[in-house]
Design goal:
This protein is α/β, with parallel strands linked by helices. The protein has one domain: Transcription Regulator spoIIAA (2-Layer Sandwich). The chain has four helices and six strands. The longest helix has 16 residues.
Length: about 120
C-alpha cells in the first residue's frame, strides 16, 4: 500500500491531509508538497490536517517543523490541526505539539471529497 496525501485548496489556503503513516517513507515528498504550496503566490498559507494520520515518527515531525520554518521564511501561515491518538501523544512527548500550536480542526475534513495525490 502506498502512502497517500490528499490536497484541497480553498481560497488562499492549501490544506494537506496525510493519510496513514507520516514517516520516513513519505516525509520528503510531504516537505516538497508544503514547499510547493508556500511558493505559490496565490496562497496565503498551508494547513496540515493530521486527523487521518495513524503513525508519526521523527521524520514526520521533522517534515512538520521544516514546513513551519519555511512558512516563517515566506511570511505565510502554517497551521497544524487534528492530531489525535498516537500522533498527538508523540507530538506531546517531543514538545512539538505546543511548538507547532496544533489545534483541533475547525470544520469537518473533506477527506473523501478531494482527489488523491499519491506519494
Amino acid at each position: 500500500m502506498h502512502p497517500v496525501v490528499r490536497a484541497h485548496r480553498t481560497g488562499g489556503q492549501q490544506t494537506l491531509y496525510p493519510i496513514g503513516e507520516l514517516d520516513a517513507v513519505v516525509a520528503d515528498h510531504f516537505e516538497v508538497m508544503v514547499a510547493t504550496a508556500l511558493a505559490d503566490d496565490r496562497l496565503t498559507g498551508v494547513v496540515v490536517d493530521l486527523s487521518a494520520v495513524t503513525f508519526l515518527d521523527c521524520a514526520g515531525i521533522g517534515a512538520l517543523i521544516a514546513g513551519r520554518h519555511a512558512a516563517l521564511r515566506s511570511a505565510k501561515a502554517f497551521d497544524v490541526v487534528g492530531a489525535n491518538g498516537l500522533p498527538r501523544r508523540v507530538l506531546e512527548l517531543t514538545g512539538t505539539l505546543t511548538r507547532l500550536r496544533v489545534t483541533p480542526p475547525s470544520r469537518e475534513s473533506p477527506l473523501l471529497e478531494t482527489p488523491l495525490a499519491r506519494v
